[in-house]
Amino acid sequence: MDNETIAFDAMANAYAPYSRFRVGAVITGPDGRPFAGCNVENASYPAGLCAERAALAAGIAAGCRTFRELVIATEAEVATPPCGMCRQALGEFGHELHITSVTTGGQRVTWRLSELLPMPFTPASLEHV
Questions:
Q1: pLDDT at 23 exceeding the cut of 90
Q2: pTM score, two decimals?
């Protein structure tokens, strides 16, 4: 199964009763293993989880610490990049990550994380001078 299909399957399982904006994501480790996630909303809005971070967490739980590609699937008319919080979380594990966003309508856009987050806050930012 290809990563886009995995992302759309994850999107179908999203729990988004408040925004009705279902998102699925799949991130691949260096060996190509896919890790899927979907958005999970909560009545206490800050307690929700984006699909991108859910996929990232699945990869981390499986032992991956570097990733090569992220595919995001939505029902939006326009391909949607990750939110700022997800960009920051992804940046911890590789600033050159390839990100592709696809829609049910067939639109597709690809970026590098470094384009979407040009000046990340990194572990080096925590070093004392």
A1: yes
A2: 0.94
